[in-house]
Amino acid sequence: MLDNLSNKLQGILGGLRSKGRLSERDIDVAMHEIRMALLEADVNFKVVKNFVSRTKDRCLASEILDSLTPGQNVVKVVLEELTALLGSDDSKFKLPDKMPVIVMLVGLQGSGKTTAAAKLAYYFKQRKHLPLLVACDVYRPAAADQLQSLGDEMGVSVFRGDGKDPVGIAKASLGYAKENLRDIIIIDTAGRLHVDERMMDEAAAIKAAVSPDQILMVIDAMTGQDATNVVTAFAEKVDFDGVIMSKMDGDARGGAALSVREVTGKPIKFISDGEKPSSLEEFHPDRMAKRILGMGDMVSIIERAKLVAEQEAEQEAIEAERIAKAELTFDDFITLNRQLHKMGGASKFISAIPGGEKALKSGQVQEDFFDRIEVIVNSMTKEERQKPSLLNGSRRARIARGAGVNVSDVNQAVARFNETRKMLKKMQGAAMQQQASKKPKKGKNRKKARKAAKGPMRGIPGMAGMSMKDLKQLQDMLGE
Fold it and tell me: Nearest-CA neighbor of 190 among 108, 102, 272, 247?
């Protein structure tokens, strides 16, 4: 959503980096361009004015202009101010030490509130909680049915009550949650197409009845500047605690995300950038600022990899040993592709590497690389997947016919597979040597394998123990 703004800011700051010295005029021109870029992104004009003023004052300081690397220092200032604009440490969602915890969602109709409730339930379920969804939207046709369908899909209970009185349903859900040992209650309330008294009064009545621990407002990121007016109205009536920014994967300009905190003082707690239940993620202002400025976000992608690893069953010792040695098979490539999809897809993985997003846009990286290989692998026999050395000319011709591709495509896939396997094996060898130098050698190979499979990327076959430098090498290989 913020791609257009990101491209413009990177272009402006890139021009400053290339200069050995900066004058006040250089700063003035850059700040004017930044102001125009933010306004075009539909950021609230008052927010733009304050942001540019603060940034300009800091950039004109003598320690910036007279430094040896003034361009880099200006980028640092812009990053810090953008981070402050997006929020601070209080953006983190913190659960109180009680049971059950009550989370209430409010917002306009069409903002994605019901879907956000289901995604939030999925988020907590993946973190070993037992959430309960409560259908308090009794006005929108099939709202409760939609929530029930989403809950059934994720294996999360849904409480519907009598389906008539929202306040009564919310109250009754407390007893149901205690009886069924549900530790988190997520209440989906009714919305309207615009702010009105009835909606506000009902939200206030539910709040008074159940005393929620957290009230989150769901905002459609494509709303634009009007989002700040809506947020202000809800803040006055309901006094919510934070924001869930939905539809961040849309093609609108996304100014709402940069305006909410400054205008209302309410932090963004979560963002959602897709339709899948796993697309909801915690909002980190510093990481978002870096992504906007093209600095990557490897921390988030590693966190996703850890979560994927925790969700997978413990592997057998022999399997761990094989993976630690990076002895990949074509089946592992399919597993890799599917686990990358769980983390948001190969494109999200690559874009998190500094410079990766730019490489994707320029076509240097083939983001559908693993998807194309999976189609080809599905045409192989089980034996061929386990022993790629069996793939002679006749077998490759048969596989090409089954996959609907040319033999040259199969040859290319096999060549890429072999290159990747060799590179990962080299990386794992280095990782094992590094671990061996730190600790005395004990036990058999299986123990070594288990240790090697505990790195930040341990959820992905062949990537256990990989460092940030290794990830950059992998990016370079995919872009060859």
Answer: 108
**Residue carrying the six token digits 């999809």:** 341
| First CA to last CA distance, the chain | 28
Pair 324, 448: CB distance under 8 Å? yes
What span, in angstroms and rounded, lies between the C-alpha atoms of 277 and 320?
29
Q: Are strands 242-246 and 268-272 parallel, antiparallel or unpaired?
A: parallel
Q: Whole-angstrom Cα distance, residue 253 to residue 399? A: 44
CA 467 to chain centroid: 21
Using omega within 30 degrees of 0 as the cis cutoff, is the peptide bond preceding 440 cis?
Answer: no
318-332 burial: b if 16+ Cβ within 10 Å, else e = eebbbbbbbebbbeb
Distance CA 283, CA 76 (A): 21
Per-residue H/E/C for 43-57: CCHHHHHHHHHHHHH
- CA separation for the pair 257, 28 (Å, rounded): 26
- Among residues 332, 403, 313, 322, which one has the least CA distance to residue 370? 332
Among all chains, which residue has been given the structure tokens 């600022």? 289
Name residue, tokens 């098979």. 329
**Domains, the chain, ordered by start:** 3-86 (1.20.120.140), 91-292 (3.40.50.300), 298-478 (1.10.260.30)
Tokens of 368: 């559908």
pTM: 0.62
Helix (H), strand (E) at residue 397: helix 393-403
Please give the C-alpha separations between residue 478 and each of 349, 373, 473, 475, in angstroms, as whole numbers.
Answer: 12, 13, 9, 5
Q: What is the pLDDT along the chain (480 residues), one digit of tens a residue?
A: 567 778 888 888 888 877 778 888 888 888 999 999 888 887 888 888 999 999 998 888 877 777 767 888 888 888 888 888 887 665 677 888 888 999 999 988 888 899 999 999 999 998 889 999 999 999 888 899 999 999 999 999 999 998 889 999 999 999 999 999 999 999 999 987 777 888 888 999 999 999 999 999 998 877 766 777 788 788 887 888 888 988 877 655 667 667 777 777 888 889 887 788 888 888 888 888 787 777 765 555 555 555 555 555 444 344 445 555 556 778 777 776 666 666 555 566 556 555 556 655 665 555 566 677 788 988 999 888 888 888 999 999 999 999 888 999 899 888 877 877 776 666 666 555 555 555 544 555 555 445 444 544 544 444 555 555 555 555 555 444
Query: Left if phi > 0, otherwise alpha if psi is -120 to 50, otherwise beta: which for 260?
Result: alpha
d(CA 311, CA 143): 30
